[in-house]
Amino acid sequence: MEKTFLMIKPDGVQRNLIGEIVTRFEKKGFQLSGAKLMNISNEKAEKHYGEHKDKPFFGELVDFITSGPVFAMVWEGENVIATARQMMGKTNPQEAAPGTIRGDYGLTVGKNIIHGSDSPESAEREIQLFFENDEILSFTKDNQKWIY
Ligand code: ABT
Ligand code: MG
């Protein structure tokens, strides 16, 4: 099944949006396969945002993403990479549609609440950058023995 890497950025964590955001993906029907609260090192941040290293905002981007804990997640489900991007909304929250995460909670492009992989190649690269293999769980909820 397709997997993607999603990450609630330091602004989303500080604003207590972890629960709200996780709920949206659960209710949509995706399955959480891995998650952790973590600090990102400068080295990891520079790798993660490597494609932007020549952009004028690169320094600010790395400073921001390393400024406090992030909530890193692996989500799984049909077409999850593209659908999660739709649920997040456009990169600039001022252009993101109401009903999307950035449209509902964000104000500025440099602090846009959530990251999501933009292709199967980035998803694979980012999952490997942030997670060890044994931190990603493969399980089904078919056997619902705790529901009476
Ligand atoms: P990410 O999920 O953070 O990768 O955002 P997204 O893929 O939607 O957008 P891209 B283009 O990858 O932006 C990466 C981060 O750079 C910030 N940014 C982007 C600016 O600060 N100024 C700009 O002009 C542009 C184009 C927004 C993204 N992250 N943050 N935080
Ligand atoms: Mg991006």
Task: Provide structural commentary.
The protein has helices at about 10-15, 20-30, 40-50, 60-65, 80-90, 100-105, 120-130, and strands at about 5-10, 30-40, 70-75, 115. The protein is α+β, with helices and mostly antiparallel strands. The chain is globular. The mean pLDDT is about 95. 3'-azido-3'-deoxy-thymidine-5'-alpha borano triphosphate binds next to helix 4 and strand 4. GO terms for molecular function: ATP binding; metal ion binding; nucleoside diphosphate kinase activity. Pfam families: NDK. Its EC number is 2.7.4.6. Homotetramer.
Task: Specify the CATH architecture.
Answer: 2-Layer Sandwich
Shape call: globular
- Residue-averaged pLDDT: 96
The major β-sheet equals:
4 strands, antiparallel
CATH superfamily: Nucleoside diphosphate kinase-like domain
Strand order in space, largest sheet: 2-3-1-4
Number of helices: 7
Q: What is the count of β-strands?
A: 4
Low-confidence stretches: none
Q: What oligomeric state is this?
A: single chain
- H-E order: EHHEHHEHHEH
CA-based gyration radius: 15 Å
Which percent range fits the helix content? 25-40%
- Look up the CATH topology: Alpha-Beta Plaits
Bound molecules: 3'-azido-3'-deoxy-thymidine-5'-alpha borano triphosphate, magnesium ion
Please indicate the percent range of residues in DSSP E strands (runs of 2 or more). 15-25%
Distance between the termini: 29 Å
User: Structural class of the secondary elements?
Assistant: alpha+beta
**Could you say how many structural domains there are in total?**
1
Keywords: ATP-binding, Cytoplasm, Kinase, Magnesium, Metal-binding, Nucleotide metabolism, Nucleotide-binding, Phosphoprotein, Transferase
InterPro entries: NDK-like_dom, NDK-like_dom_sf, Nucleoside_diP_kinase, Nucleoside_diP_kinase_AS
Modified residues (Phosphoserine): 122
Family: Belongs to the NDK family.
